[in-house]
Amino acid sequence: MTLADEIKHRLIHQFEDAVIALTDTGGGDHWHLEISTKHLEGLSRVKQHQAIYKPLQDLIAANRIHALQIVVNPAPA
C-alpha cells in the first residue's frame, strides 16, 4: 500500500462519509488534503485539524508525513 493509500484509508476509517482529494506536493512527504465530511462540521479549524491529525499521528511522528496542508470543504448534501 502506498503512503497516499494509507493516508486515505485511515481518514476514511475515521470519517466514513469522507470525500478526499490527496495530492503529493513534493518528495513524498508533503501533502495537500481536501476533505469533506459531516464529522467536521461545526468544529473550529483547530478542532478540525486535530481530528484529521489523530489517525495520522504515527506517520507524522515517523516523519513519513512532514507537511500536510488541509482544506476542509462543506459536506455534500
Notes on the protein architecture:
- The chain is α+β, with helices and mostly antiparallel strands and 77 residues long.
- The protein has one domain (3-73): BolA-like (GMP Synthetase, Chain A, domain 3).
- The chain is built from three helices and three strands.
- It has helices at 3-14, 45-53, 57-61; strands spanning 19-26, 30-36, 67-73.
- It has a three-stranded mixed sheet with strand order 1-2-3, with helices on one face.
- The longest helix has 12 residues, at 3-14.
- The chain is globular, with a radius of gyration of 12 Å.
Which keywords apply here?
alpha+beta; GMP Synthetase, Chain A, domain 3; 3 helices; 34% helix; globular
Compact description:
With 77 residues, the chain is of the alpha+beta class. The protein has helices at 3-14, 45-53, 57-61, and strands at residues 19-26, 30-36, 67-73. It has a single domain, classed as GMP Synthetase, Chain A, domain 3 (2-Layer Sandwich), CATH 3.30.300.90.
End-to-end gap:
31 Å
What share of residues is helical? 25-40%
Summarize the main sheet: 3 strands, mixed
Number of helices: 3
Q: Mind telling me the C-alpha Rg?
A: 12 Å
Count of strand segments:
3
How many domains make up the coordinates? Answer: 1
CATH topology: GMP Synthetase, Chain A, domain 3
Strand order, main sheet: write it out.
Answer: 1-2-3
CATH class: Alpha Beta
Poorly predicted tracts of residues: none
CATH superfamily: BolA-like
Secondary structure blueprint with pairings:
Blueprint: H1 3-14, E1 19-26, E2 30-36, H2 45-53, H3 57-61, E3 67-73
Parallel strand pairs: 2-3
Antiparallel strand pairs: 1-2
